[in-house]
Amino acid sequence: MPRSQNSVASHRRRKKVLQKAKGYWGGRSKVYTIAKGHVEKALTHAYRHRKTKKREFRGLWVARINAAARTNGTTYSKLIAGLDKKSVTINRKVLADLAANHPQAFSEVVRFVTA
Known about the structure:
Blueprint: H1 7-20, H2 27-30, H3 32-71, H4 76-85, H5 92-101, H6 103-114
Helix pairs in contact: 1-3, 3-5, 5-6
């Protein structure tokens, strides 16, 4: 009995990988065996960096809040401790947005916490 090769599934699988490799340079986007490795590595990086992105944004928010807090005469740690003491539940993302785009509102928050 002759061997069945199932070329329809093979072509679809290869096409899927080459589709993901669009925009890569040279053989990385044209040759299946090369593209397969680069797509796999890219997907690994994408998975890992979805986790890292959350850490990096929190660090950015903390830096923005600290800079704005210091211009208002306090520090980040004192501001966060004051927010906890007054039971104000504003997350760091919103605080950083206030610090960057609405300095007057951020000053009011600082004034409320330090009072």
